[in-house]
Design goal:
Radius of gyration: 17 Å
Strand order of the largest sheet: 2-1-3-4-5
Largest sheet: 5 strands, parallel
Helix content: 55-70%
Structural class: alpha/beta
Distance between the termini: 44 Å
Number of helices: 8
Strand content: 5-15%
CATH architecture: 3-Layer(aba) Sandwich
CATH topology: Rossmann fold
CATH class: Alpha Beta
Number of strands: 5
Order of helices and strands: HHEHEHHEHEHEH
């Protein structure tokens, strides 16, 4: 059992080390963070969605922004599109599950906002449809994916593809990226910043 546990920790660490050693990927993360900071400096909001574990990530991410991440500061507008069961079931029933996020973006998204779609495969149809709705409204789009990026890799304005084919490793790395985004947003908006 102990060797199995060590193997899991090692696999997680190796995925993060691949990110650490990939300068191009680090630059892409920095670009996404700058885009998120700009959204808040322009008094807009971040909307986030995913399915399953990625839905939990969307909710966690939004909570860190609305509540706080590292220190007390004013709340920031963020919304996980995965939390309203009445919306999800009504839209799913009336329009189909592949419209549950796009329909919400049509109603709540505004030009200048930013939408983050999370999918380990990069092929979640409801996220792809949300990107289409977002772009029609002038909303910047970010894809958090894994594997080869799937169809989301070409559909978003910014794409972060975690270098792994294993869903748990991808999700662990997504959380790391989400935490970095929250950390820098707080410091840039309410602290001493982190520099270029």
């Amino acid at each position: 059992m102990k060797e199995y546990i060590k193997g899991q920790v090692k696999a997680s660490a190796e995925t993060k080390l691949k990110i650490l050693e990939d300068e191009a990927f680090l630059e892409k993360i920095a670009e996404v963070i700058k885009a998120c900071v700009a959204i808040y400096k322009n008094e807009k909001k971040i909307l986030i969605a995913g399915n399953g574990g990625s839905a939990a990530d969307a909710q966690h991410f939004a909570a860190e922004l609305v509540g706080r991440y590292g220190f007390d500061r004013p709340s920031l507008p963020a919304l996980a599109l995965t939390t309203d069961t009445s919306n999800l079931t009504a839209i799913g029933n009336d329009y189909g599950y592949d419209q549950v996020f796009s329909r919400q973006l049509e109603g709540m998204g505004q030009e200048g906002d930013l939408f983050i779609g999370i999918s380990t495969s990069g092929n979640s149809q409801n996220i792809l449809n949300a990107f289409t709705s977002a772009k029609a409204k002038g909303i910047t789009t970010v894809a958090l994916t894994g594997r080869d990026g799937g169809r989301m890799a070409e559909a978003a304005d910014y794409t972060l593809i975690v270098p792994s084919d294993a869903t748990p490793r991808i999700q662990e790395s997504h959380l790391l990226i989400e935490h970095m985004i929250c950390d820098v947003i707080e410091k840039e908006m309410f602290g001493d910043g982190v520099g270029a």
